[in-house]
Amino acid sequence: MKNNILLIHTGGTISMQINSETGSVTPSDSNPIVGLNSKLDQFANIIEIEAFHLPSPHITPVEMLQLRNLIVESTNKYVIDGVVITHGTDTLEETAYFLDLTTNFEFPIVLTGAMRSSNELGADGVYNLVEAIRVACSEDARGKGVLVVMNDEIHQAFNITKTSTSSVNTFQSPQYGPIGLITKKLVHIHQSPVKRRYVEVEDLQKRVSMLKVYAGMEGDILESFLQLKYDGLVLEGLGQGNVPPAVAKGIKRLLDANIPIILVSRCFNGIAEPVYGYEGGGKMLEDMGVIFATGISGQKARLKLLIGLNQVNSPVDLKEFFN
Ligand code: ASP
């Protein structure tokens, strides 16, 4: 029996076309990836919804929450065996991680996209879409959290990041690698997440920003977050999780004003930990109240803090939440 797959389109290059005269890639009036049922129904019964038609730099946590709600509402209307979401690649990892934190379905939720628009030579959109549907139909993909499928590989939302501006092999999971691969005949998954965290979120009122730390950075830019009334800040620190002394002073001002600061490393391998005891070193930052995020990138820590701060009914212990 064929699986029922909810296919949700949000836009991105997979839904765009290149203009042969100007060379620019733009969304067209109608989405070229919508209505491919004659190609897709050999794999599954497709329930298709065009949620947005947006380039992914236009996607915000508001659309991410709408997507989450759309999936939840659809489960009340249809019997769903899996979900596939087409999405622009620029912020795909953020939407994937948001959905990973805010849904707890057994069935697979799989995001995919394309690096080449629909009318370019070697367009990868329909190919990736078919592979994503095959993964969403796979029994082995159940209970694995939100997955990303591109270029014959299956990745977990937790690890995945866009690593190349243009290569079709852009999505990688630094440190850990893909959790599976897709061949012409097989969907092969060789790894399961050790644990998943589910958080209920209804609203996204708080404001959270992020800064990359650099050599010689000064502290005044951090203090500007006080005037701008941000509710939280993520810092991509140096190495193991350190900052220049002037930044440590700025951090102190924010923490004194009860603005939580989450620290990740700007290195894309390894885990930020409080190791160094010098001024601005991780130990000093931890003693001041900075929270170290275990093993996620800055953009994902930012979404996690946003979600954590929005738990108004049952406030989360941020330190526990991030570890
Ligand atoms: N700029 C495009 C987007 O994210 C890139 C893509 O989809 O591959 O919408």
**DSSP strand content:** 15-25%
Question: Could you describe the largest sheet, including whether it forms a barrel?
Answer: 8 strands, mixed
- The DSSP helix count reads 9
> What is the fold-level CATH name, i.e. the topology of the largest domain?
Rossmann fold
Number of strands: 16
By CATH, the architecture of the largest domain is named: 3-Layer(aba) Sandwich
N-C termini distance = 42 Å
CATH homologous superfamily placement of the largest domain: L-asparaginase, N-terminal domain
Please report the first level of CATH classification, the CATH class of the largest domain. Answer: Alpha Beta
Strand order of the largest sheet: 4-1-5-6-7-8-11-12
